[in-house]
Amino acid sequence: MTQAKKFSISVQLIAAVVAALIVGVVIGFAASGLVGGAPTAGPAQQPKRVVQIGFTLPLTGELSSIGKIWEKVVYLAIEDLNQQVQAYGFNVEFKPVILDDGTSVDKAVTNVQTLAQQGIRVVIGPAASAQVKAVKSFADSNQVVIISPSSTAPTLAIPNDFIFRTVGSDAGQAKVLATLAFQEGARKVIVFHRNDEYGVAFADFFTKYFSQLGGQAVSMPYQTGLSDYAAEVASLASKVQAEKADAVVLIAFDTDGGNILSHAAESPALSNVRWFLSEGPHGAAELKTPAVGAFAAKVRLLGTRPLFIGNPLYESFKARLKEKYGVEATVFCDNLYDAIMLAGWAILRAGSSDGNAIRSALVEVAKNYYGVSGWTIFDSAGDKANQDYGVWAIVKADGSYDFKDVGVYERGSIVFTEKPYP
Description:
The protein has 422 residues and is α/β, with parallel strands linked by helices. The protein has two domains: 13-167 and 332-375, Response regulator (Rossmann fold); 170-307 and 389-416, Response regulator (Rossmann fold). It has twelve helices and 15 strands. The chain has an eight-stranded mixed β-sheet, sandwiched between helices. Strands 2-1-3-4-5 form a five-stranded parallel β-sheet, sandwiched between helices. Strands 11-12 form a two-stranded antiparallel ribbon. A hairpin with a 2-residue loop joins strand 14 (400-410) and strand 15. Helix 2 (64-87) packs parallel to helix 11, helix 7 packs across helix 8 and helix 11 (333-350) packs across helix 12 (355-367). The longest helix is centred in the N-terminal third of the chain and has 27 residues, at 3-29. The protein is globular and about 70 Å long. The protein starts with a helix and ends in a 6-residue tail after the last strand.
């Protein structure tokens, strides 16, 4: 079958799924008053009903490099959502209410409470698993639907709550990262990880899977929220030498990950072992500096990230994001986009601002929505049921360094689509 024919079939399938979703929403909830019929001109036209969707994003703090890009994704998705719903006759305009949580647990809780006080019953975010854990109690008690595009801690895979995640848990990604490290020849690794909900759970699952493959993993947590990690990296270098490790597995966010790698580049001990990374730092500007880029090439750094393989909608999304806002789609941008689309259609399907009704509607909408991150069906715990993973590297092109997807996880092994390093 030719690529053109495959693309045609994919587009037809996507169109059929979306059509089924729209028809179901319109037929089931026309009585809610949100369906306005064909637009009319003149004074008889009713004003659009404004529906707010809340956002708590890391515009500052440890995930700020990625958070600033996500803000652009929000604007693009809301624009697309409004075009879609109005084209189908809904007399509705969605508007985002974006609050900065600074990648802070306390600010995330405050933001969700503030949005709820404004009558908003769907909040996209927060980003980090520790933040999601912190807002869970309030969300469940007040029936506020939380949709995180990036929280991946397996410990938060809890059925029947108000927490949803448009990405698979790290139980899956840890297996992929363990496979990558072992396949690349690592046998004894230091797992240098954030000492938080995300880092601890990821490290535990990585150790489990790496041990099953025949490798040995030594856990080494580090304190989060520091302005500089020079001392922690020095301790890491000593640990690598003492344990005679052949690789480091770094479970980090963007600012801490970039700082750690910048110091590691100055360490002879850390420059002579392989490095493998989680998805956290993917897309961060801190990793594209000349010093870190050269270090990545020397240690042949590779990372994993959630990525739906071969999706024409994702490629279109990436191109439009770049054209409209001049930014590259980084990790979880596709999951964020789909979280917004699901939220909007779930609100329409529910036909009310009742959080419990929206939660039920969200599950049904996700069963029939194929987005830029692929199929969005939730599992019993409210996490994305089907998740693929890609392998990324930091490569040099035209005199500068950037991220590039270089492989995929298929049938229990890593398949490289191109040679990541010379």
